[in-house]
Amino acid sequence: MPNSAPPKRCVIADDVRASRETVGKWLRESGFDCRLLENGQLAWEVIKDRSPDLLVTDLEMPELCGFELLEKIRESDDESIRDLPVLIMTSLQDVQTRSVVQQLGGDGLLQKPLDKHATLSVILDLVSAGRSLRERAHPDEDTCVKGRGVISPTLRRLLSTVAKKHP
To answer: Taking residues 81-91, what's their average pLDDT?
Structure first.
């Protein structure tokens, strides 16, 4: 008997077209209905209009970065938006980033370049079982960035500001 459940809806926000199209292709192959958007502000507008089942967002984007988008989601008055699973994608290798994602209530951190199978495993696990970094004492290594890396001064200031607001 075919599955009659509607497809899971996902918003993918990334200012790099190739990144959002690649993740969108992978998720569509897994039965998701995806909206691909080039910045956090557009993603926020779509989420406010109709909360999806998942948000996958880049960290550094114009108009509204991934941290700001995550913060808006977790502070929303709408419970369906506030409880939205959020995965942050980044090419940064900075231990502070993972900490801030957790402090803001993110559900996982995916290191670019993304591996299709590891990414789908994290996403399908999160959507089907509702597991998140917030609920795990020791998150899976595949969902976390390791090591220290180069980080832009702008993002460094944002990380510092967020860390002060959310100790």
So the answer is: 93
